[in-house]
Structure formats: C-alpha cells, structure tokens
Amino acid sequence: MTLTVPALSKHPRRSLLDRASFVLGVASAVGVVALLFLGLVVSPPAILYGETVRLIYVHPAVATITFVAFGVCALASLAYLWPRTRSPRWDHLAGASAEVGVLFCAATLVSGSIWGRYTWGVWWTWDALLTLTLMLFVVFVGYLALRRTGGDPVARAKRCAVTALLAFLLVPIDHYSTSWWNTLHQGNTVLRVGKSPLIEGWQLATMLLSFLVFAVLFAWILLRRFEVESMEARLEDEGYVWAIAERRAEGR
Known about the structure:
Layout: H1 16-42, H2 59-81, H3 88-119, H4 128-147, H5 153-168, H6 170-175, H7 177-180, H8 201-251
C-alpha cells in the first residue's frame, strides 16, 4: 500500500509583503551607509566627550526601537487575545517583534556600557535605568523561551500573549526612570520641553537620521522574521498532519 501524505506547502509567489521587504532592505542598506559616513566622517567630535559622542548615533536610536519592538509585541498579543481579532498571524507577529526587540535591547546594553566606560569610568553600574533595561532584556528572553515550550499551540499562544502584556509593563517604567529617580543617565538630548536640543548642526542631523535608519532596519528585520515565524508554524502544522497520516498507515 502506498502511503500518501500531505506535501509541505510551497513558497508563495512574490507578494506585496515580499516587495515591501525588498524595498525596506535596500533602504536599510543605503541608510546604514549614509549614517556611517555622516557619523564617522562628516560629524565632528564633541568638545567634552571627544570621539565618544559618536555613540549617540547608535545608542538612543536602538533604545527607542527596543521600546517600539516590545510595544508591537504587546499590541499583537492583545489582538490575539481579543476574540474578534484572534488569528495565528498576530501570535507570529508578537514572537517576531519580541525577537527583534531582544536584539535591539542587547545592542542598547552593549552601546550603553561602552558609553558608561568612557563617561562614568565603569562598564556597568546598578543605576535604575540600566538595571531596568537589563530586567527588560531578561524578561523578554524568558518570553521567547516560553514560546518554545510544547503543548497545544492555541493554549501556548494565549499563555505567551498574557506574558507579553505583563512584560511590557516594564517599558514605561524603564522609559520614565530618568524622570522618576536620580540616575547617572542624562535626560532627553533632542526632545526637551521648552528648551533647545543639547546638540546642533551635523551632530543633530546625524542623530535624527539614526532614528530613521534604525526604524527602517527594524521594519525590515521584523518582516523577514515574521515570514520565518509563519513558515515555522506552517511546517509544524503540516508536520503533524504528516505524522498522523503515517501512524494511521502503520496501523492498517
């Protein structure tokens, strides 16, 4: 008897999502090159911090995108928990955004440690903002680990969605920690209510460009990771179908 099992789905044709991913990828590459040129060649060193000031073209932007990524994860989780909008795609988006957020959070911690070494004289200090950012990193790593547990996919997705919403509560606390407590970390450099930015000229232009470049880079990585997440889920589902069909054939 010949065993016929469902074939795994073939890759879909190039869609609007694929085209958007391609455009974002090209824009990210061009933006990174432009940012490197402005940040390392055009922008002058600071009087107080010297060449170390070039870290502001990385650290504030990746820290902001970290919050955005975890925010997308929380919104997607909320959409999954809401019965009217429940769809596996929201769960896939939540997982993909959390992974990208952890990546940017790690970049935030590393760049912040380098900045601290040259401004505060230490690689790490248990400052409120630094500690909360580390907690944020650990909590979402735990969320990603939870997504890899077994069991019913729907029940697992619900558990992960609730966990993501609880983990996101750390984001506003982390963001406003410099306002609520006395920390070593300086406040806003550009968005200062009623005051001018602390930097100007090419330094200000390059810093603003960094936010745009890292935002586009985040969108590109998120789209690619979302596609991978969706393919993994489809492979898992069709793998179950294949396994059931094979077991039934063995029982005949």
